[in-house]
Structures are given as structure tokens and as C-alpha cells.
Amino acid sequence: MGLKGFAEGGIASIVAGCSTHPLDLIKVRMQLQGESAPVQTNLRPALAFQTSSSATVHAPPPPPRVGIIGIGSRIVRQEGTRALFSGVSATVLRQTLYSTTRMGLYDILKTKWTDPETKSIPLTRKLAAGFIAGGIGAAVGNPADVAMVRMQADGRLPLVDRRNYKSVLDAIAQMVRGEGITSLWRGSSMTINRAMLVTASQLATYDSVKETVLERGLMKDGLVTHVTSSFAAGFVASVASNPVDVIKTRVMNMKVVAGTAPPYKGAVDCALKTVRAEGVMALYKGFWPTVSRQAPFTVILFVTLEQVKKVLKDFDF
């Protein structure tokens, strides 16, 4: 083991991330539906933040929710087809930092914890490896994650409030200049929690399903097995991570104006305000786009990974 596991995971993740970026953008826009109160606070900060906390709960009801097709059609109609790839440079950087780290570390830990005699590893250790790898990867990739969320969400804002980042590097530079370097790790606790859940559920499920299918002779080791295992892994990861993902998206996207209190004090405050104003099921906003993105992302990720491993099997680094 060396850098090969990181290289294999990084290449596969970048391919998967770019391929499914439009679905991820639609998911982010759906998760921000109903967040009208925080967006409007910058118009009247003196009134909006001097009232009691209960006043924000009784804000005017949000407009009707729009589905996957509706959101996608609206983006193309109002912003153009290219808008579906808004923030794709941030996706590339995020996958380079986050996914390369988590895939490489998971591979190392899984190899280290595999029983040399039976060549097997318990599910609990797979999950532990996923938690550790995901947490470290998220901490490394959080700046790109914040930039990606903001770039994807920018088109839904009024023209006067748009950030208009030119690229992921421009986004990071503007955040550091305008909000301080700590803004790059805004929502990092949620990012790390989500990454731990996604990595543990996604990678452990893929390995476990694939091993079970092969051991029972249900399928041969090939494309069909990889796709089946990947789809199962993507669905499980979506169910486990969606509530955390909604809160993470809203905390990262909130606009902080100097001299006024931020819309959310933190992840817990965001969760409470979201549930009070929109109901518990608001935590599963964008679930089907999440599944629609996570399933193909996971399929492309692991199918690509298997092919990259074959290409690099004779290289040692």
C-alpha cells in the first residue's frame, strides 16, 4: 500500500462527481426550498433580529415545493443549460481533496484490519474504517464543499444578492477576504458528520453486498455485480445522510452580513428552525434527487474504480 489507493479513488471520484454534478445541483436547490425567512433577513436586519425567536417561526408560509423535473426545468429556462454545471470546478477540487483522502484511507485501514488467514473483515471494522476515513477527508475538503454549495445555490438568489464567483479559487479568495479564513470551515461539523455517515454506509455496504453476492454464487464478479452492489450502497448512503446534508447545505449557504446576527447560530439551531418552520420531513428535502444523484454517483464511482484498478495493477507506487 502507498499512494496507489489514493490515486485510484481520486480518479474514480472525479469522474463520478463531474458526471452527476447537475443532479447534485438540483438536490442543493431543492434542499434550500422553503428557506425564505433567512434569505429575506438581510433586507430589514434591524427588525428581523430584534424580534423574539418565536417571530421567525411564524413567518409567511413558503411557496409550494417544486420537484426534480420542475427545478431542473426552471434552471435551464431561467439560467440556461450551462447553469446545470455551476460550481463544477468546486466539485473537481472537492473530489480531489475529500474523496481522494477518504478512499485512500479506507483502503489502507481495510487492508490493515483484514484477517490475514481468512482474508475477511467484520462489518463493524468496515464501518469504523469508513467513519475515520470520511471524517478526515471531510476536514480536508470542507473549503471546496462550501464553495461548491454557494456556487450551486447562487442562481436562485436575486441579482443584487448573488456572489457571482468566477471559479472555485475565486470563491475561496472572496470568502477569505470578506468573511475570514474560518468561513472556509463553516458547517464543518455537519460536513464531517455527513462524510462519516456516507463513507461508512457507502463503502461498507458496497463491500458487504459484493462479498455476499459472490460467496453465495448469485452472480459472477463483473459489471452486473459491481452495478448492483453500487446501487445498494448509494441508496443506503442517501437514507443515512440526507437530514445532515440538508442542514449542512443551509448553514454553508447562509449569507452573513457584518453588524447583523447570522440566520443560524449553528447546525443545531438550523435544524430546530427548519423543523419548526417546515416540519420534520423538511430534513428529507431533496431526498429523491439525493438518491438520483447518489445511486449513479456510486455506480460510476465503483465501476470506474474497478477499471482503474485493472489499469494500475502492474504499477507500484
Task: Give a short synopsis of this structure.
Solcar repeats lie at residues 4-112, 121-212, 221-311. The chain is an all-alpha fold. The protein is 69% helix and 0% strand.
Q: What brief labels describe this structure?
A:
Mitochondrial uncoupling protein 5, 69% helix, transmembrane, single chain, repeat, mainly alpha, 13 helices, mitochondrion, transmembrane helix
What's the Cα radius of gyration?
Answer: 20 Å
- SSE order in H/E notation? HHHHHHHHHHHHH
Structural class: mainly alpha
How many runs of DSSP E, i.e. beta strands? 0
- Low-pLDDT sequence parts: 37-59
Report the span from N to C terminus: 8 Å
Helix content: 55-70%
Principal-axes shape call: globular
Biggest β-sheet: count, sense, barrel?
Answer: none
| Average predicted local confidence, pLDDT | 84
Strand content: under 5%
List the total number of helices: 13
Outline the structure in words.
Pfam families: Mito_carr (PF00153). It is a multi-pass membrane protein. Keywords: Membrane, Mitochondrion, Mitochondrion inner membrane, Repeat, Stress response, Transmembrane, Transmembrane helix, Transport. Its main location: mitochondrion. Solcar repeats lie at residues 4-112, 121-212, 221-311. This protein has 317 residues and is mostly helical. 69% of the residues lie in helices and 0% in strands. It is built from 13 helices and no strands. The protein has helices at 4-19, 21-31, 36-40, 45-48, 53-57, 68-79, 88-113, 123-153, 168-179, 188-215, 223-253, 267-278, 287-312. Helix 11 (223-253) packs across helix 12. The longest helix is centred in the middle third of the chain and has 31 residues, at 123-153. Residues 37-59 have low confidence and may be disordered.
